[in-house]
Amino acid sequence: MGYPALVPFFDKTSLDPTERLIVFLVASYRHNCDFCVTAHSWSAHRQGIDEELVSALREGRAFGEKPSQKRTRSGGLSSMFAIG
Predict the structure, then answer these.
(1) What is the gyration radius of the CA atoms in the chain, in angstroms?
(2) For residues 26 and 80, what is the distance between their CA atoms, to the nearest angstrom?
(3) Is 40 exposed, middle or buried (0-12, 13-18, 19+ CB in 10 A)?
(4) How big is the CA angle at 45 (ends 43 and 48), to the nearest 5 degrees?
(5) CA-closest candidate to residue 39, choices 78, 2, 77
(6) Consecutive H or E run containing 47
(7) Least confident of 11-20, 57-66, 74-83
(8) Is the pLDDT score of 23 beyond 60?
(9) Alpha-carbon torsion 32, 37, 39, 40, what sign?
(10) Which of the four pLDDT bands, split at 50, 70 and 90, describes residue 84?
C-alpha cells in the first residue's frame, strides 16, 4: 500500500497541506522509514513549516519538548495518536 495509495484519501479530508505533512512525518517516524522522514521533512521545509516543529517530529519529540526528552519510536508521540 504505502504513500501513493493514501494520497487520494488525503485529498478527500479537511486537512490542509501542513497538517498532511505532519501526519506523513509522524507516520514515517513511527514506521522507522528514514527515507520517508527525509523526503517529508524536505517538503515541510519547502512549505515553510516551522523548523522547530519539523525537528521535533523527526526526533520523535512533542513540539516544545527539549531534545533531551526524546521518546522512543515505539512509544513516541503517543498522546498525538490517542487524540485520534
Answers:
(1) 12
(2) 9
(3) buried
(4) 110
(5) 2
(6) helix 34-47
(7) 74-83
(8) yes
(9) positive
(10) very low
Residue that is written with C-alpha cell 506523513 in the block? 24
With DSSP H G I counted as helix, E B as strand and the rest as coil, what are the percentages for the chain, rounded to 5?
A: 65, 0, 35
Q: What is the identity of the amino acid at 60?
A: G
Is the four-CA dihedral 29, 54, 60, 11 of positive or negative sign? negative
CA proximity to 56, closest of 39, 46, 68: 68
In angstroms, the CA 41 to CA 57 distance is: 9
Q: Three-state SS across the chain?
A: CCHHHHHHHHCCCCCCHHHHHHHHHHHHHHCCCHHHHHHHHHHHHHHCCCHHHHHHHHHCCCCCCCHHHCCCCCCCCHHHHHHC
Distance from C-alpha of 82 to C-alpha of 80, rounded to nearest angstrom: 5
Which residue's C-alpha cell is 514515517?
Answer: 28
- Give me the percent of the chain exceeding a pLDDT of 70: 74
